[in-house]
């Protein structure tokens, strides 16, 4: 089978297409013919080996050589202890622990898999496992919030931001989305919220304006974001350098003791239940998909280059025929 393989950190050019044997599923696994894979920031971090925490996959060289966790496809085989799925079932999962999705076939534990509703395409389904679930968990982490609460989403132009905007608006929160100037018009056209480019935000003199700030990309000065919080506001950090993550984690206790503000680093947890919640919202047309930039497996280098350069709004998806 074809796989997108890499054995060195450092550059998107390190990934190449090669042939590997089709995996044999263990007793509790299903073998999936992969149709689409949604790329995430975590895939790029594992490929580059940056930030440093991304080297959990191997300090000097990656131990897991095929990336891709957000997998949609159909079952073509299963272990003898699998009970929920059979050949032909359309499925989606987040295989973050093992990766391996950028291949024609992947074997995954039954417990992380859920079915895809008939009316949802493989391309649509693969967008939800990380981006959708992270957005769901972020918003639930700040509850309860009254309708009309003010939220700023820094780095709103990606998949997580797209879903976070929509989930917040469903709860009648006032949302301000921030991203690169090149993404502002598309965000304005797609979502019912205020949109500010990151350069304008840096020049802003507003203070104490937001109940919640979600920092999805770590691209703004921490001190600026802190001053944009209301006196009882909360900042949740999802992305950024190791130094930035450690700084926020270290400051969280002193800030809690000395002020009413709260700082925290968000910890993502894969969840089939949350994935089903997001698929159900999309199935009932409460959510729309982010813009999708699609690539076939042979062009996976270009997909990762676009992901690194943040050239597109929405999600990068790799289609595997």
Beta-strand fraction estimate? 25-35%
Q: How can the largest sheet be summarized?
A: 7 strands, mixed
CATH level-4 homologous superfamily of the largest domain: Medium-chain alcohol dehydrogenases, catalytic domain
Quick one: CATH class of the largest domain? Alpha Beta
The ordered H/E elements are EEEHEEEEHHEHEHEHEHEHEHEHE
The CATH architecture of the largest domain can be given as Alpha-Beta Complex
How many structural domains in the coordinates? Answer: 2
Query: What spatial form do the alpha-carbon principal axes imply?
Result: globular
Helix count? 10
Structural class: alpha/beta
Cα-atom radius of gyration:
20 Å
Description:
By secondary structure, this protein is of the alpha/beta class. It has 2 domains: 2-127 and 290-319, Quinone Oxidoreductase, Chain A, domain 1, CATH 3.90.180.10; 131-265, 3-Layer(aba) Sandwich (Rossmann fold). The chain has 10 helices and 15 strands. Strands 3, 4, 5, 6, 7, 14 and 15 form a 7-stranded mixed beta sheet that branches. A 6-stranded parallel beta sheet has the order 10-9-8-11-12-13. Strand 9, helix 5 and strand 10 form a beta-alpha-beta unit. Helix 3 crosses helix 4 (159-170). It is globular and about 60 Å long. It starts with a strand and ends with a strand.
């Amino acid at each position: 089978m074809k796989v997108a393989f890499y054995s060195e950190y450092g550059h998107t050019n390190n990934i190449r297409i090669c042939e590997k044997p089709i995996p044999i599923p263990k007793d509790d696994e299903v073998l999936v013919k992969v149709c689409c894979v949604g790329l995430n920031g975590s895939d790029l971090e594992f490929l580059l080996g940056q930030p440093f925490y991304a080297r959990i996959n191997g300090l000097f060289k990656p131990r897991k050589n095929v990336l891709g966790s957000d997998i949609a496809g159909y079952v073509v085989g299963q272990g003898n202890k699998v009970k929920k799925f059979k050949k032909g079932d359309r499925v989606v999962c987040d295989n973050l622990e093992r990766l391996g999705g950028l291949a024609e076939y992947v074997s995954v534990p039954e417990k992380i898999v859920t079915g895809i509703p008939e009316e949802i395409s493989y391309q649509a389904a693969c967008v939800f496992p990380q981006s959708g679930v992270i957005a769901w968990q972020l918003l639930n982490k700040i509850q309860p919030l009254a309708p009309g609460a003010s939220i700023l989403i820094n780095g709103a132009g990606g998949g997580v931001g797209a879903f976070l905007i929509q989930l917040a608006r469903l709860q009648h929160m006032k949302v301000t989305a921030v991203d690169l100037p090149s993404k502002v018009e598309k965000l304005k056209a797609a979502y019912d919220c205020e949109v500010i480019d990151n350069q304008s935000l840096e020049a802003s003199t507003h203070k104490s304006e937001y109940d919640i700030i979600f920092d999805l990309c770590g691209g703004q000065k921490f001190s600026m974001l802190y001053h944009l919080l209301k006196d009882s506001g909360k900042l949740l950090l999802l992305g950024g350098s190791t130094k930035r993550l450690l700084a926020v984690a270290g400051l969280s206790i002193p800030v809690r003791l000395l002020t009413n503000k709260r700082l925290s680093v968000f910890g993502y947890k894969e969840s089939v239940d949350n994935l089903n919640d997001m698929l159900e919202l999309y199935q009932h047309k409460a959510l729309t998909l982010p813009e999708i930039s699609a690539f076939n497996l042979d062009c996976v280098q270009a997909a990762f280059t676009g992901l690194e350069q943040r050239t597109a709004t929405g999600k990068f998806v790799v289609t595997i025929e």
